[in-house]
Please model this.
Amino acid sequence: MDVAKEMFYRQDQISDRVKTGIEGLDVLIQGGFPKRSINLVSGPPGSGKSIFCFQFLYEGLKNNEKGLYLTLDKKVDGIIHQAKKIGFDFTSAIENKLVKFQYLNINKKMIYENMTNEILSEGYTRIILDSISPLAEMPIFIKNTDNIPDISIINSASDESSNSQLPVRRLHLRYIFDALETSETTSIVTSELPLGSTILSRDGISEFLADSVILLNFDPTMDRRKISVMKMRNTKHTLKPQEIEIGIGGLRIL
Ligand SMILES: Nc1ncnc2c1ncn2[C@@H]1O[C@H](COP(=O)(O)OP(=O)(O)O)[C@@H](O)[C@H]1O
Ligand SMILES: [Mg+2]
Model:
């Protein structure tokens, strides 16, 4: 990154920040994600969302921080292998129970309870939900309501006689965001965007619920990748898209 740009932002680094692990990003956001924030990382397929998440968890391992990676993809071993290929070998961290890759079965009625139980179980400081998009679109079934305050509203709204898709969807997302907020961890939620879209999340709601929004994008004709910080709570940041590169070691701002 250009030295003048780095110096300009470096002066303003503040405490209570969680390093992202993305080379060149932390200096642009005053030292990292705000502690205990929920961060939305959006982008089309292949834009680097999952790699961003690997990097974030791997960064935590440097301080022995416990990380959880929740996925709706059954092929968890494939994800771990994908991470290893790009330079993030989680094998020993998994053995030492510092990192857990957990598959959430979207066809199971208990998915929300399972997810919340995992999120709220002791000790995680970094949590990933990669991606939220299928969850935002599925019907909800909730039995155990202990941890979520407005669950009765969710249940009534999910009544089949109810016609209102949008409120139901919003409550779905609220449930997930509430659980992450209660956990007091610093988390990343990813959202799949259609290629070439100008929206910030697939569901159109997550960007309002999240504390920050990071957009990953690419321009196939120019063979260029970009990252943009669209919003971040309590943070002075540039809105200008920054050029990035993906390689061994993950994403790097040029
Ligand atoms: N070793 C590598 N070197 C350079 N680019 C890579 C490498 N491995 C993967 N990529 C790029 O990263 C993309 C996958 O990133 P990923 O984080 O899985 O995207 P997303 O989760 O947004 O779909 C691939 O499509 C490819 O363009
Ligand atoms: Mg992915």
In short: The chain has nine helices and eleven strands. The domain at 37-235 is CATH 3.40.50.300 (Rossmann fold). The pocket of magnesium ion (ligand 2) is lined by residues 49-50, 130 (CB under 6 Å). The longest helix spans residues 165-183.
